[in-house]
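Colleagues,

For the teaching module next term, I've prepared a clean inverse folding example: a structure given as tokens, and then the sequence designed for it. I'd like students to try predicting residues themselves before seeing the answer, so please don't circulate the second half yet.
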């Protein structure tokens, strides 16, 4: 009997048009730094608007951060099929429009198709949803994605680690997100407990 080569580790990263483009870009930078994971990148047109506005970056800066870049319109791409093995998908940040599309299984572009495939193959889908305040449609859509097995992960900063900079806040969130995929040793330090909290 022949031996089968282990499937390469692959993650799909999509950046959509909610504020917080830095989360998607930092995810790509972190994956590059860690190595060993083939990243597949998708950026919506509204995602590009925010990358340019918030980070003053262009395609020449962001595309080289990924191993494979797909057009959002290319619904015939490898990642549109469940037969293409991946470890899952992260949408960072995830707009309410993309959330709604995923919640309703629309598959109306390659981002929402890849998310649909990730859910149908029972792989990990993590949505860094960003809006405030939420209306009932947003809340219902988050519930629907959770019921389908997706993880709703709003990028809310933590303060218990006493971050001194925005970069530290972003890194903390990105580490927690990547730890959900168990790609290697944990990136975010385990909370050791507060001493003397009940004294
Ligand atoms: C500067 C800017 C900030 C935005 N911030 C948000 C946001 O935080 N959350 C959200 O759901 N939509 C936000 N939007 C609106 C989305 O970009 C818009 O709904 C878009 O159609 C989303 O498309 P996409 O999901 O294909 O990227 C923002 C738009 C702009 C231009």
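(Answer key — instructors only)
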């Amino acid at each position: 009997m022949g031996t089968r080569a282990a499937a390469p580790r692959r993650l799909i990263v999509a950046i959509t048009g909610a504020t917080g483009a830095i989360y998607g870009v930092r995810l790509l930078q972190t994956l590059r730094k860690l190595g060993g994971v083939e990243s597949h990148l998708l950026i919506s047109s509204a995602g590009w608007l925010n990358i340019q506005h918030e980070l003053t970056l262009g395609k020449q800066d962001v595309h080289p951060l990924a191993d494979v870049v797909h057009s959002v319109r290319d619904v015939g791409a490898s990642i549109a099929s469940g037969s293409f093995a991946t470890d899952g998908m992260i949408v960072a940040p995830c707009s309410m429009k993309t959330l709604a599309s995923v919640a309703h299984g629309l598959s109306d572009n390659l981002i929402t198709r890849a998310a649909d495939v990730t859910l149908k193959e029972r792989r990990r889908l993590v949505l860094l949803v960003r809006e405030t305040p939420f209306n009932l449609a947003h809340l219902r859509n988050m519930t629907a994605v959770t019921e389908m097995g997706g993880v709703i992960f709003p990028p809310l900063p933590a303060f218990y680690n006493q971050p001194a900079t925005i970069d530290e806040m972003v890194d903390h969130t990105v580490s927690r997100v990547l730890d959900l995929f168990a790609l290697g040793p944990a990136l975010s330090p385990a909370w050791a407990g507060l001493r003397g909290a009940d004294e």
